[in-house]
Amino acid sequence: MVKLGNFLYHYRNFLFPLIYVLLFMPSPQIFESPVTAFLVGLVIALVGQIIRGATIGLEYIIRGGKNRQVYAEKLVTGGIFSHCRNPLYVGNVLIIFGLGFIANSLLFVCIIGPLFVFFYQAIIRAEENFLMNKFGEEYAEYMRTVNRWIPDFSGLGQTLSSMTFNWRRLVLKEYNSTYFWTAAAVLLLMKNIYMSSTHNISFEEARPLLITAFVALTLGYALVRYLKKSGKMVSE
Fold first, then answer.
1. Is the pTM of this model over 0.90?
2. Residue 133 burial by Cβ neighbours in a 10 Å radius (0-12, 13-18, 19+)
3. Mean pLDDT over residues 207-222, rounded?
4. Domains parsed from the chain with CATH numbers
C-alpha cells in the first residue's frame, strides 16, 4: 500500500484530473431531476470546501511534497489538524462525491468515488510511513489521539476562537481548485438540463443564467490570479 501511495503521490497531478473527465461519462441517473441532483451535490461539495477552507485559513500545511515525493519539514498538528489528521483529503473526498451527485452519475458515485477514496488511502499510508520515520514517537502520539479520516468536533469552537483566520492565504491557496470544481459543477448542470427528459426545465431559459455564472467564476479566478502573480495580494 505504501508503494502504491508513493506512486500515486508522484503522478497525482496527472491522474486525478482524469476524475473530472469521468464526471461527464454516460451513466444511469440517481435523481430524475438534474436540479435536485445539483442541489444535493452542491451541499455535499460545500461542506468539503468549508472543511478545506477552515484548514487552510487556520494553519496551512505545505502541499505537493518535494520533487513530487512525500515530504514535510515540520509536523503540523494545530488548527483543524488537531481534530483530523487529513482534513484536506476529507474535504477533497466530499467535493468529489458532491460533483458525482451534481453529475447525477450513479456509476461515478458507486465506482469512481470509492476508487478515489482508495487512492487517497494509499497516499495517506505513504505519508504516514514518511512521517513516522521522520518524527517517530511525536507522530505516533499524534496518530493515537487524532483520527485519520473521521473528524472529532469536540473543542472545535475553542480551536476556531483561539486562532487568527488568514483570509488572504485561503484565497490565494484555494482559488485554483475552488474555481475548477465550481466551474465543473456549472457545466455539469448545463449538460444535465440540456439532456434532461423532463419537460418542466427549459434549457433556453436556464442557459443565460448558467453562462453568466460560469463567466463570473472565470472572471473571479482571473482577478485573483492577477493579484497573486502581480504581488498585489500576499498571504502574510
1. yes
2. exposed
3. 95
4. 2-165 (1.20.120.1630)
